[in-house]
Amino acid sequence: MSVLQIKDVTKVFGTSLRAVDTFSLDVADGELVCLLGPSGSGKSTLLRMVGGFERPSGGEITIDGEDITHLPPEKRPTGMVFQSHALWTHMNVFKNLAFGLKLRRVPAPEIKRRVEAVLELVGLAGYGDRHVAKLSGGQQQRVALARSLVLEPKILLLDEPFASLDQHLRERLREEVRDIQQRLGITTLFVTHGQDEALSMADRIVVMRDGRTEQIDRPDVVYREPQTPFVAGFIGTMNLVEGIVTSGTFTRGSFSVPLPVPDGEATLAVRPESLDLVAAENGVAKVHRVTDYGTHGLVYLDLDDGTRLKAMVSHPDLFGNGQRVNLIPRELAAYRGDARIYRS
């Protein structure tokens, strides 16, 4: 059992820059949690505090109830995989993996057994004699993962490990890492700014903004039920339209939809896949561009005031540039300030 608890952790740089602000999170045994947010949201700083590479200005970090807040990295039961791999290029694969075990005075036969086992786990059996400088980027990232796993950590920390790889390799490796994580049942905290990675890998997603939590939930809930306009606009593609609600109707220029909320300003949120289009000579929107992706099409639309929207359609050939259409949201949400006030 390996449970990570982060309690009211704060990190202040200088005299006033709060990179992380009273952040709390419990990561259950065997759970993979993704920290997701834009640059500067505090996610990597938080991960580095869990790994011991940054010291919190306040709060507490425990693993299985043991306070590790002020322990150095080498004294923590954590393994960290960095974006840059951080491998020793003058060593071969075996020596890279064995280095940490030697520091812990593990007997040579046990080192050999554990290194060979972890290389097989990451799909690099027989690569022990290879020099890391001659490996591909994907193979180097597997070695970096193996170097953390060979130490048998209680908590695995991943800091944007696929960011430097091309899209195809990134997709393949994230599936492999998720399979390994589930096979080992290792508790994992994963930092990424890639929504696809978070949605496809995580048991739960923590959306961060300005060092604080915006929402913590399962990937499907974060996508379908964003609690704030920031999450709605950050996760996936979302049409966000600002307008006025009067007598139960939301209006932005000539575009209007029923919205049973109190009168006042509101932001309407509609996913492209939930926005139906109906051709109409006097429609409220004009088709700006159509992109055919083969499996579906994406129609870019302009309201009369220039507001740009997107709609996903199954037959993009039915729409053309300059065509007028009406908009029919099948599912929508509405926000006022930072609070969601309606969801259909």
What does this structure look like?
The protein is an alpha+beta fold. The protein is built from eight helices and 21 strands. It has a six-stranded mixed β-sheet, sandwiched between helices. The chain has a six-stranded antiparallel β-sheet with strand order 13-12-11-14-20-21. Helix 5 (167-184) links the parallel strand 7 and strand 8 (187-192). Helix 2 packs parallel to helix 4 and helix 3 crosses helix 4 (137-149). It starts with a strand and ends with a strand. 36% of the residues are buried.
Topology of this protein?
Blueprint: E1 4-13, E2 17-27, E3 32-36, H1 43-51, E4 58-63, E5 66-67, E6 78-81, H2 93-103, H3 108-121, H4 137-149, E7 155-159, H5 167-184, E8 187-192, H6 195-201, E9 204-209, E10 212-217, H7 219-224, H8 229-234, E11 239-246, E12 249-252, E13 255-258, E14 264-270, E15 275-279, E16 285-292, E17 297-303, E18 308-313, E19 324-329, E20 333-336, E21 339-343
Parallel strand pairs: 3-8, 3-9, 6-7, 7-8
Antiparallel strand pairs: 1-2, 1-4, 4-5, 9-10, 11-12, 11-14, 12-13, 14-20, 15-19, 16-17, 16-19, 17-18, 20-21
- Please give the share of residues in helix: 10-25%
Largest sheet: 6 strands, mixed
Q: How far apart, in Å, are the first and last alpha carbons?
A: 40 Å
What would the average pLDDT be, to the nearest integer? 91
Topology as a string of helices (H) and strands (E): EEEHEEEHHHEHEHEEHHEEEEEEEEEEE
Unreliably modeled segments: none
- The secondary-structure class comes to alpha+beta
Give a quick set of tags describing it.
alpha+beta, single chain, 8 helices, 344 residues
